[in-house]
Design goal:
Number of domains of chain A: 2
Number of strands of chain B: 13
Shape of chain B: globular
Order of helices and strands of chain A: EEEHEHEHHHHEHEHEEHHEHEEE
Radius of gyration of chain B: 21 Å
Helix content of chain A: 25-40%
Number of domains of chain B: 2
Structural class of chain A: alpha/beta
CATH superfamily of the largest domain in chain B: P-loop containing nucleotide triphosphate hydrolases
Distance between the termini of chain B: 60 Å
Strand order of the largest sheet of chain B: 7-8-9-4-10-11-13-12
CATH superfamily of the largest domain in chain A: P-loop containing nucleotide triphosphate hydrolases
CATH class of the largest domain in chain B: Alpha Beta
Oligomer: heterodimer
Radius of gyration of chain A: 21 Å
Chain lengths: ~350, ~350
């Protein structure tokens, strides 16, 4: 058993303010329409911290990840990486920045080139970042270091991806992402394509790597039990907005937003003792992001919705250390433990969320 | 919107056998020889109950289901065993007799609703097909039946939506259509092959609730194929745990999950991050499942088992009774039974030190 060192909350690797991104979608003869994939996202990731991103498909998780990787340009808002704006970088500066944010993809069967060996895949980044490891000796030394780090043998470097099992392929993907010594890894559903018995191996590896290297993670997943286990803080997304954020155990044990409460309640639990006393089953499905509801985006599926929810978008409400819900940032309690939700009628207690018997 | 968990569903009632599978073998012909993918699988599904086939990818659970439904790919064939649906052996039936069974006696719900539906026919036509073939209805009557079915599975405005094509529905709605198609002729047995794997968690809860409701209304036997332990824990009465084509444990879900008597079941249960603390190491099963081409002699689980001994390398263990209606294929199931005898629901029992000192 290892003891987890709490992340240093004072120093943020990444700070995102009011990030928005929309895509133009063709609407046939009617011209084109705007799809707002991200609508005013704000978040921060501390050094050595894991931030979980939770939400259903189509909520904007992947667009956010792609924007943070600079694969998409945001319409508005700011991204600060160690205080600097990566979108302002050019040339060498940009190349140097690319080293610091890397991504691990969901499907280890589709994301590795079948015609390259594991060694070639892992050391390919050195070809772009030429000045990092000069000469083949330095590169092969680093390759062995990486293989060792993710629990593969040095002879595995000569095998092709199809000779590995799913879990081992994901290890190759992780080694490739770590090759340039990044500060932030974006993990997009890193274990959801893996079998359960192998999933635990990869989660343990990610945990060990974080302690060893001090790297920060953004962990995107739809599996709530995994998110609870591996993240320090969590942000719940719905239709392009973060609707609730806070320290993982706070959000899981005392959800404020009705959507979060419904998510917690809907996910099946193995342990009968963990099952909600009452299960909230939401009506309907995620509305089209092309035509999001007015006011609060969740109101069409919310069981607490009233007239005001349709006319006014709720402001962020926070839960203070005294247990009271108030508008805006909580004034009591440490700021890094802020627990916020966007709702006119936040869930008042774990009992209302159906998590414990009333 | 809120509904109570029916934990009391396993009420005392006399059980009627709907499906009895005995010693089912399935072979796949490959260029390098015949591979046995399902080996001597036996289980029974009862009316009004859900039986879960649980296992990781490649364990043979879907092959078992396809063999029961008579939908095996041409390269695969049933090599032995009896599949008795309401007392009639499906394997010895003529193709014509078997087609007559499909629909009125046996329905199947596939994982991927978009590929299971025909893109060029409206859902109304596809849903009505069963009534036209088996009940000899004309187009108009069949369409009315289809609309009624769509209403039953919770599709809004069925009169209009019956004229829509599969791509015009969301994932959850497509799954509902597939379920409607499977239950159209009130089958005695419904096979659901990973019905919610492609869906989001809030929609998954809706679909599982629908399947539960239909099972009650029709008093069907449901065979649920899944890799999700939590889904099994919540939905099924009995569970069959498969590994590398073999049944390693089977019994009532409550007993198997609280007191597993096979090291694989135990390892799987321990791999689930339930109440683990952030940063704690998850227990995982080392290695990955064997390739079906190279299943070792002796126990199928020997290479990953913490309890492996010399006998496991030589003799394949038969299923032995380990509890009330509980069976395990392990030479050391007695040890696990003794362990499980402790009055604890905690899955984190320590493994006995039985490792072979060779």
């Amino acid at each position: 058993m290892s003891t987890h060192t709490m992340a240093n909350p004072g120093k943020n690797v990444l700070e995102v303010q009011d990030l928005s991104k929309s895509f133009t979608v063709s609407a046939g003869s009617g011209g084109s329409r705007k799809l707002k994939a991200l609508d005013g996202i704000s978040l921060s990731v501390g050094k050595g911290e894991t931030l979980g991103l939770v939400g259903e498909s189509g909520c904007g998780k992947s667009t956010l990840a792609r924007t943070l990787m600079m694969l998409e340009t945001p319409d508005s808002g700011s991204v600060r990486f160690d205080g600097a704006d990566p979108f302002a970088f050019k040339g060498k500066e940009l190349l140097a920045w690319r080293r610091r944010v890397q991504m691990v993809f969901q499907d280890p069967f589709a994301s590795l080139n079948a015609r390259m060996s594991a060694g070639q895949i892992i050391s390919e980044p050195f070809a772009t970042h030429k000045d990092l490891y000069r000469g083949s000796a330095a590169r092969s030394k680093r390759l062995n270091e990486l293989l060792d780090l993710v629990g593969l043998r040095s002879t595995d470097a000569y095998k092709t991806p199809q000779e590995f099992s799913g879990g081992q392929r994901q290890r190759i993907g992780i080694a490739r992402a770590l090759a340039l010594g990044p500060d932030l890894l974006i993990l997009d559903e890193p274990v959801s394509a893996l079998d359960l018995s192998v999933q635990a191996q990869v989660l343990n590896l990610l945990n060990e790597l974080q302690q060893q290297l001090g790297v920060s993670y953004i962990f995107i997943s739809h599996d709530l039990s995994v998110v609870r286990h591996v993240t320090d803080r969590v942000a719940v997304m719905y239709l392009g907005r973060i609707i609730e954020t806070g320290v993982t155990e706070d959000v899981f044990d005392r959800p404020l937003h009705p959507y979060t409460a419904a998510l917690m309640s809907a996910s099946p639990k193995l342990d009968p003792a963990m099952r909600p006393a009452k299960r909230i089953v939401l009506k309907g499905e995620l509305p089209s992001p092309l035509d999001p509801p007015s006011g609060c985006r969740f109101r069409t599926r919310c069981w607490k919705a009233q007239d005001i929810c349709a006319s006014r978008r709720p402001e962020a409400t926070g839960l203070g250390a005294d247990g009271n819900i108030s508008l805006g940032l909580p004034t009591i309690g440490p700021a890094e433990r802020a627990h916020m939700a966007e709702c006119h009628f936040p869930v008042s207690s774990p009992a209302e969320a159906g998590l414990v018997p009333a | 919107m809120m509904e109570l968990l029916d934990s009391q569903r396993a009420a005392e009632k006399t059980l009627t056998t709907v499906l009895a599978v005995t010693g089912l073998d399935v072979d796949i012909r490959t260029p390098t020889g015949t591979v046995r993918v399902v080996n001597k699988v036996s289980f029974t599904a009862y009316q009004g109950q859900t039986l879960a086939l649980l296992g990781e990818s490649g364990c043979g659970k879907s092959m078992t289901a396809k063999a029961i439904a008579g939908l095996l790919d041409p390269v695969a064939s049933v090599a032995g065993g009896v599949v008795a649906l309401e007392g009639k052996d499906l394997n010895t039936m003529s193709a014509r007799a078997r087609r007559a069974v499909a629909g009125p006696s046996l329905g199947i719900v596939f994982q991927d609703a978009l590929t299971a539906l025909n893109p060029v026919y409206t859902v109304g036509t596809q849903l009505g097909e069963a009534f036209r073939i088996h009940r000899g209805m004309n187009k108009k009557q069949a369409r009315l039946q289809a609309i009624e079915l769509m209403r039953r599975v919770g599709i809004p405005e069925p009169e209009v939506r019956a004229s829509a094509y599969p791509h015009q529905f969301s994932g959850g709605m497509r799954q509902r259509i597939l379920i409607a198609m499977a239950v159209a002729l009130s089958p005695r047995l419904l096979i659901a092959d990973e019905p919610t794997t492609a869906l989001d968690v809030t929609v998954q809860a809706q679909i599982m609730a629908l399947l539960r409701r239909l099972r009650e209304e029709e008093n069907m036997a449901v065979v649920l194929i899944t890799h999700d332990l939590a889904v099994v824990a919540e939905e099924a009465d009995n569970v069959v745990v498969m590994y590398a084509g073999n049944v390693v444990e089977r019994g009532p879900v409550a007993t198997v999950f609280s007191a597993p008597t096979h090291p694989y079941t135990k390892g799987l249960l321990e791999s689930v991050p339930t109440h683990a603390v952030r940063g704690d190491e998850l227990s995982s099963i080392p290695g990955s499942p064997p390739e079906l081409k190279n299943i070792p002699a002796g126990c199928v689980y020997q290479d990953r088992c913490p309890m492996v001994a010399a006998i496991c390398r030589e003799t394949r263990p038969e299923l032995r009774q380990t509890g009330e209606n509980q069976f395990s294929a392990c030479h050391f199931s007695d040890v696990l039974v003794t362990q499980a005898g402790n009055p604890t629901n905690d899955h984190s029992l320590t493994s006995p030190q039985l490792e072979d000192n060779q």
